[in-house]
Specification:
The protein is 16% helix and 24% strand. It has a domain at 2-233. The protein has helices at 2-11, 21-28, 51-58, 60-63, 123-131, 144-153, 173-177, 298-302; strands at 39-42, 67-71, 90-94, 109-113, 134-137, 157-163, 182-183, 189-195, 203-208, 211-227, 258-259, 273-277, 289-294, 317-319, 322-324, 329-334, 342-344, 350-352. By secondary structure, the protein is an alpha+beta fold. Strands 1, 2, 3, 4, 5, 6, 7, 8, 9 and 10 form a ten-stranded mixed beta sheet that branches. The longest helix is centred in the first third of the chain and has 10 residues, at 2-11. It is elongated, with a radius of gyration of 24 Å. The model is unreliable at 76-85 and 343-380 (pLDDT under 50). Bound molecules: S-adenosylmethionine. S-adenosylmethionine binds at residues 15-19, 44-45, 50-52, 73, 75, 118-120, 137-140, 143.
Length: 380
């Protein structure tokens, strides 16, 4: 049912999924330090119904914002929400609380009309984008690629919502691989959105700021936050325990890489290419691993994945004469061991190294010899 909802929405290019305040709070609490002294733009947001506008206007002082700009796309369907009856697209600017009541009063918000319909690609919206330091919103799903391309073109920092599938898009994966964008904290989740009134679904009470309103709601699976702001999560190292054996880690038949079925099973002592489930992107730390490519399609062909037993470019395994294609793999390689890596000593004990070695730009073909740690009384 949830998948059907997403597909129907995509096909009809109905992009009216309204983000709940609680989901915005749960993600943005990790980025607070980034907002100090910054101009934030929410450019797919009708301020009358957008919880992004609500979050930033009510937290303006707490975050130490310089300015908040919100642009509203003229809604073609005026029946979406009862209060959304605007004929023209508008944009707002807010410089914070002036009368010390800690609330964004209407007289404190500058309301301006746009000439066009508020399309984020229009020149007048691009001029507002140029003013922004950080863009934060849930953009239309159907225009996600174009939306990200524009942010990259104007070199903007951002925190945005998209479909988890986007990691496989030919114009998004290279950005992740080249460490230009990464996943936020809340990833690949089924999120509940407020939906248009004409949507067939349950009605629930949803918090909009300090008001509780009855809204149609829809659950959409595979929702992920994307960002290019530095967050602690992407520096967290995955602790690896398993050792490589040929038997446990079979190689693909059409690409020189081993297959690993769960992220916890990535071997600590294998430095060749490894195929892992795409959920790996969620724990990807570019200091520990490099992303090599995806396991299927034209991007896979570009890194040398050959056609498989079905004649498709999709990495495949042949185990005991049975062929199969593991689902949705991406290909990674571990960077060279460094301080803190667990390594095997000549006595078979596992220790952490304490020698500081910078990661190389690309990992060596073979594992480094383990450096026993003198502190633990093991002779070099
Ligand atoms: C997924 S909804 C999210 C709305 C709001 N950002 C939120 O999170 O509650 C995407 C919004 O983008 C608007 N939109 C669609 N096409 C647009 C465009 N070309 N430029 C700007 N906004 C657009 C839609 O009307 C819709 O309100």
């Amino acid at each position: 049912m949830a998948n059907q909802n997403l597909n129907a929405a995509k096909n009809a290019k109905k992009d009216e999924f309204y983000t709940q305040l609680v989901d915005i709070e749960n993600e943005l609490k990790h980025y607070k330090a980034h907002f100090k002294g910054k101009t934030v733009l929410c450019n797919c947001d009708d301020p009358r119904i957008s919880n992004f506008f609500h979050y930033f206007s009510y937290n303006f002082e707490q975050l130490g914002l310089e300015k908040l700009i919100t642009t509203c796309y003229k809604n073609q369907n005026r029946d979406l929400f009862s209060q959304n009856d605007s004929e023209r697209a508008i944009w707002l600017e807010y410089f914070g609380d002036k009368n010390n009541n800690r609330v964004p009063d209407p007289e404190e918000i500058g309301i301006h009309y746009l000439n066009g319909d508020g399309d984020f690609r229009s020149q007048e919206c691009i001029e507002l984008l140029k003013e922004a330091d950080i863009v934060v919103t849930n953009p239309p799903f159907s225009l996600f690629r174009e939306y990200v391309a524009q942010l990259m073109k104007y070199e903007k920092k951002f925190v945005i919502i998209g479909s988890h599938n986007a990691i496989h898009y030919s114009d998004i994966f290279p950005l992740i691989k080249n460490d230009l964008i990464w996943l936020g904290y809340n990833t690949n989740q089924t999120m509940t959105f407020a939906m248009p009134n004409n949507y067939i679904g349950e009605v629930k009470e949803i918090r909009y700021g300090d008001k509780i309103e009855k809204r149609k709601i829809g659950k959409v699976p595979g929702i992920t936050w994307f960002t290019n702001l530095d967050i602690a999560k992407r520096h967290e190292e995955l602790i690896l325990y398993r050792k490589y054996t040929e038997k446990e880690y079979p190689k693909y038949e059409n690409f020189d890489a081993i297959n690993v079925n769960t992220i916890q099973d990535i071997p600590l002592d294998y430095y060749g290419i490894i195929g892992v489930p795409d959920t790996f992107v969620d724990v990807y730390n570019p200091e520990q691993f490099e992303l090599i490519g995806v396991g299927s399609g034209s991007m896979a062909a570009s890194i040398g994945v050959k056609k498989n037993y079905r004649g498709r470019t999709d990495i495949a395994l042949c185990i005991n004469g049975v062929n199969k294609c593991p689902y949705s793999r991406i290909l990674i390689r571990r960077r060279q061991q460094r301080t803190g890596d667990v390594v095997e000593t000549c006595h078979g004990a596992s220790l952490r190294t304490n020698q500081s070695k910078p990661y190389p730009q690309s990992a060596p073909a073979l594992p480094m010899a383990a450096e026993p740690d003198a502190e633990y009384g093991v002779k070099k």
